[in-house]
Sequence to fold (353 residues):
Amino acid sequence: MSYMDLSPVAKSIFNNGGVFVPSPLALDEKKRHHEAYQRLLTLYYIRSGAKAVIPGAHTGEFALNDLELLDRWMLWISEMCHQYGDEMVLMAMVGGSRALKQAELAVKHGYHAVMIAPTAFTGLSDAGVLGLFEDIASIIPTFAFELQTTIPGSYRYSPKIWAEIFKITHGAKGASFDTYRSLVMLESAAKSSKHQELILFTGNDDRIVADLLGNYNFKHDQQNRCVSYKGGLLGHFATDSGAAVNWFNAIKDYRKSGQWSFELSKEELAHGVNRCNMELFDALNNFENSVWGVKYRLSSMGLLPGPFCSHETGSRDQAALIDNVYGEYPALSDDQFLKENIGALKKEVGINN
Fold:
């Protein structure tokens, strides 16, 4: 079976790395999809310097498994990126029982690639999982995705399965929130015959900075092989994205030059990012309100009409904890940028308040 290859432009952007944003779903108080705010959110990510704005991920509540909703969401992001974006790729997350149908929508809207969420694998054997990868990769360039086990629909990839997946895909996002499982993915990538071509993303919100700073060496056939993460695709990047681009670029420059330029030290950055994520994702409450926290932060900056979710309502004191931690770390915040620019951004997408 032949699989779709990335376009040269998309391959270059992925390999250069950056901030890849899993977009939240913009809902109004009646839980209806809100086009103007979805476009506002997308414009904010583009102006922040994101390399992709990805519909259908966990922060977007997996598009509520609604094909019509995902169809228009993909269209709006495509239109915004073509109008305003420069050097961006179009990538979507597909999952659930209709993952192949969702991938077909991505093809329809001219997306460069999709990433398969493990929610697509419920009830499937290992052979069924690989079969679904093959079916989707035959119509659009495809990436894998390992999800933490606290999220419903997670799937544990063995080294054997990773080896087969890397024959089919262009890479993967590791978001197991488990150092040992992350090492399984990294070692499998290093041992792949495609190890120099595979594009790896971190989705580990509890160790983003360490992941992005690292080189991961493994011995294979008496040779040392090194892999690393090209970029991040994680919930932290769905808010305060301009600040995230700034510190990601500092990491990228450090890996090239050995010189650190960000206003926080590497250790302070890692600690601050983890503290923000602890509150954003309701980590101490078993991540029960991980989407609400991101939406609360965005709505507090004027980018959403409110933290409206299909199921989550926020945990006790979560809003105050999010406010407090971002107040402690202005270097990780886009508050000043949005204070100066939110009016113009809203006007550009037709929001008059």
Summary: The beta strands are 19-22, 52-54, 91-94, 113-116, 142-147, 171-175, 199-202, 216-220, 223-227, 231-233. The radius of gyration is 19 Å.
